[in-house]
Amino acid sequence: MATQLDALLAQAEAAEEEAKRSVTVEKPLELHFDSGNLLAIDPNPLNETEFRLDREGYLKNVTRDNAQLLINHIWSLPTENVDGVVIAKLPEGKTPIPREKPVPKAKPLTRWEQFAKLKRIKNRKKSKKVWDEQLKEWRPRWGYKRANDKGRDWLIEVPNNADPYEDQFAKLKAAKKERIARNEFKRLCNIARSRKLKVPGVGLPTKDDPSKQELGTAMSLAKRATASVGKFQESLPKEKPRSTRKKRKFEPLIGDFLHEKEWQLGILSKMSNKVPKLDVTKTCAPVLADRNIPIT
Amino acid sequence: MEGVVKPRTHRGRRVLEAREPKLRENDKSALLLQGASSSMLLKTVLKDMHSLKKPLSVLYRKKNMTRPFEDQTSVEFFSRKAECSLFLFASHSKKRPHNLTLGRIFDHHVLDMHELGLESYRSLHEFKVQKCMQGLKPLLLFTGEEFESDLEHRRLKNILIDFFRGPSISAVRLGGLEHVLSFTAINGRIFVRSYRVLLKRSGVKLPRVELEEMGPFLDLVPRRVRIASQDLFKRAMRRPPAVLRKPRKNVSHDPFGSKLGRIHMQQQHLDTLALHHGRALRKPRKEGKGANSENEESESKMGKVNGRGKGSNVGRKQDVKSRSKKRRVH
Question: Any idea where this protein resides (chain A) (predicted)?
Answer without folding.
Answer: Nucleus
